[in-house]
């Protein structure tokens, strides 16, 4: 059943829930993470947005060629150094959604 | 505090949670919704992805110039006709995230 289409890449939504009082602390960490990740050769897209209704809810919209590229990202020095520093200010566990298929017009 | 940047558009993540047995029923409705929405003059981006770990979890990644444009979308004939037909197969309420600010490298 060709009801949906395998996309040529892996899309990821990675959501962090940060204590409101720690937002100013994590912003420079996030800025460094975005800069260094966008410089990775396998990174297609890596945007970090903020929920309009919750300033501690940070949403990464990511695109990678495949799961192996995402694994390379998660093993980088900057990821392994910065993510634990950010996660120390979580108010709830992160939420991760992986998407390899899209629904497209016939 | 210029810690984050107002993006030039409104990004939206709209998530539907559909009963597994209804996925085949909603796919043609989604395909029509994507086709007609992409044809709207104010639509910047409107992609529909499927959660790799939950085939009933459908995720719209949307970009609109502003909230007014999103309101126009929600008032179209195709939205008002198709969304209730899709929502009839929901197993849980939809989740909507609106994002007008991004975190960018310095």
Automatic annotation (TrEMBL), chains A, B:
The keyword Oxidoreductase appears for this protein: yes
Domain of life where this protein originates: Bacteria
PROSITE patterns: ABM
UniProt entry keywords in alphabetical sequence: Monooxygenase, Oxidoreductase
Enzyme Commission code(s) on record: 1.-.-.-
ABM domain: residues covered: 10-99
InterPro entries: ABM_dom (IPR007138), AI-2_Isomerase_LsrG (IPR050744), Dimeric_a/b-barrel (IPR011008)
Transmembrane regions listed in the UniProt entry: none
Top-level class of the enzyme under EC nomenclature: oxidoreductase
Molecular-function annotations in GO: monooxygenase activity
Protein name: Quinol monooxygenase
The organism of origin for this protein: Paracoccus cavernae
Lineage, highest ranks first: Bacteria, Pseudomonadati, Pseudomonadota, Alphaproteobacteria, Rhodobacterales
């Amino acid at each position: 059943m060709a009801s949906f289409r395998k996309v040529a890449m892996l899309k990821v939504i990675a959501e962090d829930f940060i204590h409101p009082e720690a937002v100013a602390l994590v912003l420079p960490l996030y800025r460094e993470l975005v800069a260094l990740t966008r410089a990775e050769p396998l990174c297609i897209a890596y945007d970090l947005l903020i929920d309009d209704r919750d300033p501690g809810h940070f949403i990464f919209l990511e695109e990678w060629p495949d799961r192996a590229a995402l694994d390379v990202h998660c093993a980088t020095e900057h990821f392994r150094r910065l993510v634990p520093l950010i996660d120390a200010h979580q108010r709830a566990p992160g939420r991760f959604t992986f998407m390899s298929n899209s629904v497209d017009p016939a």
